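User: Can you predict the 3D structure of RNA polymerase subunit sigma-70? Sequence below.
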Amino acid sequence: MTDATRLDADETDLLAAVRAGDPARFALLTERHRRELHVHCYRMLANYEDAQDMTQETFLRAWHKRESFRGHAAVRTWLYRIATNACLDFLKKPTNRAPAPSALPDADSEVMYLQPYPDQMLPEDPQESVVARETIELAFIVAVQHLPPRQRAVFILRDVLGWPASTAADALELTVASVTSALQRARVTMREQLPDRRLDWRSPATHELSSDERGAVRSYIRAHERNDLDGLMSLLRDDLRFAMLPDPGTVTTTAGDAVDGWISGGLFQRGHDDWRGITTTVNRMPAAALYLRAPGDSQYRLFAIAVLHIVDGKIAELTGFDATDKPWLDLAPTL
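Assistant: Sure. Here are the predicted structure tokens for RNA polymerase subunit sigma-70:
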């Protein structure tokens, strides 16, 4: 069966489910798109849990608006349209997240609602994840948050998903001219936020970690397990960018100052000096899941996950996240 035939069959099957008012069949036909829609919502919102909520909202809206599906567009396109507008509606509402997405004036602004994305939740179809690494990395997700919501939607639909301007305009109820103008402004902002990164998101990008990345993660974990401060310092670039979310304060610092700051904050002191770690990946980036054993405890308990951006074998960016109470990361709670 060709892809075109499969698409025609999908539309025909969904139309039949709509006309029959068959919720079970409707759910079966739309559910297959859950993972890619979840990634789409995550790119829009930078928060795994919010993306989960908006993905579920997408399916609810799809059922309530099922009569609007007439088979003129692919099922996938119809669902993306609903998901995009669900996210835009979410971004209009006051939330406890800070700062608001529209209040991010520069690259150093905090995105404290940022959460890591577990790789096991990425789409399994290689065609759906061909650009996943560069468009799911933390730097990209943070950069997208600097766009106003409508620009953000246009940019993702046009430059990430590769939609024609007319299709994006129809999804967002804008003119083609408005979409073109919004995309031009969004591209300028993205170049400012990602000056050293490739901006052709539709070109294939490798998903595999390099040997430098794998080696740096192993060395980072080993330094923690041995309380090897010199070894840890040697892994860090002197222009390290460090953040520990959701705490404010992304800083660019020297390796020595970074380690001194961690020590003064209690790291590698009694109670925070008995570590184990495992190598993992989130956002298709190398990461270390760190487990801490407190005095008197018999087990190492999941403490944090450090997501690393490696350049020439050294850690250029380190974003730490509290890993407790996040079962969706699919990490063992104890070692």
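Strands lie at 236-245, 251-253, 275-282, 285-292, 301-311, 314-322. The chain is about 45% helix and 15% strand.
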